């Protein structure tokens, strides 16, 4: 597949609806991808962003259950943690992370939640040659995405995980919870880690806005450290720009989503060739 066409979805009474609720949603890239993936796969479906204020989250979620053609959603900030308590059934990794980024509904309106943010991040990293097993990691941000990344990194066999958050109690709570599941991994809530870290990750919101401060200074780390950001828009965050200008290996946020799309389709029971879908999404700006 060398090029892609621009697809316009044909919406009719049989169209399935998927969505991404968040607050805000202007940074969300997934609807752009899925509204080209669906037609390419011959699926009569659309994907829409839904901006929901926190006070309305519960009522909106309840309403979705009763739309027969509404099949599921991915979750954007800041709702990955709250929604884990609203779904009827969550996977073990969702329970461990205390978050969901995928929810589907069955024909009776029962909801099922999972999180593949972390799995997509790890798969995307390793596709770029960064192997997680045995590595030391500094992770900034312990919201829904950060919790999911922490679980996936521990599942991937990292040796040490340092957690940091602007609310230190959140980092400590996550560290304590994860230690009960991963006794073989050293897990510490620690704002300032050692300099000899293999992988430093921004999983916070810092970088979404032009005037945001850096989540951390990459120059604190030795030059072998890989600097990663999960923010997708802008692609070149201030953190990644600074790290790249100084010669660090960087890892962009869009890789996490690129390698999740096939996981989403699996979760919603949509047949596809993962290699074809990956090639398609990597061509979409």
UniProtKB/TrEMBL annotation:
Location of the Shikimate dehydrogenase substrate binding N-terminal domain: 22-103
UniProt xrefs under Gene3D superfamilies: Leucine Dehydrogenase, chain A, domain 1, NAD(P)-binding Rossmann-like Domain
Origin: domain of life: Bacteria
Keyword Amino-acid biosynthesis: yes
Keywords: Amino-acid biosynthesis, Aromatic amino acid biosynthesis, Oxidoreductase
Annotated Pfam families: Shikimate_dh_N
Protein name (record): Shikimate dehydrogenase substrate binding N-terminal domain-containing protein
Protein source organism: Flectobacillus rivi
Lineage of producing organism: Bacteria, Pseudomonadati, Bacteroidota, Cytophagia, Cytophagales
């Amino acid at each position: 597949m060398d090029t892609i066409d621009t697809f316009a979805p044909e919406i009719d009474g049989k169209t399935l609806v998927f969505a991404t609720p968040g607050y805000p949603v202007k940074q969300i890239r997934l609807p752009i991808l899925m509204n080209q993936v669906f037609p390419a796969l011959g699926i009569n479906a659309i994907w829409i962003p839904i901006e929901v204020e926190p006070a309305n989250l519960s009522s909106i979620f309840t309403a979705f259950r009763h739309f027969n053609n509404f099949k599921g959603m991915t979750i954007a900030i800041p709702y990955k943690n709250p929604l884990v308590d609203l779904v009827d059934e969550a996977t073990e990794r969702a329970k461990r992370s205390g978050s969901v980024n995928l929810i589907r509904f069955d024909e009776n309106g029962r909801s099922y939640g999972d999180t593949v943010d972390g799995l997509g991040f790890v798969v995307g990293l390793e596709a770029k040659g960064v192997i997680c097993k045995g590595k030391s990691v500094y992770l900034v941000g312990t919201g829904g995405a950060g919790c999911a990344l922490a679980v996936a990194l521990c599942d991937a066999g990292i040796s040490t995980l340092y957690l940091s958050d602007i609310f230190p109690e959140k980092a400590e709570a996550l560290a304590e919870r994860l230690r009960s599941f991963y006794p073989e991994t050293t897990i510490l809530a620690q704002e300032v880690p050692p300099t000899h870290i293999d992988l430093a990750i921004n999983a916070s919101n810092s970088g979404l806005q032009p005037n945001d401060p850096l989540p951390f200074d990459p120059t604190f780390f030795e030059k072998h450290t890989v600097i990663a950001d999960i923010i997708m828009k802008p692609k070149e965050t201030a953190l990644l720009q600074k790290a790249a200008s100084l010669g660090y290996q960087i890892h962009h946020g869009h890789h996490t989503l690129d390698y999740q799309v096939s996981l989403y389709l699996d979760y919603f029971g949509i047949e596809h060739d993962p290699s074809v879908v990956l090639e398609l999404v990597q061509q979409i700006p």
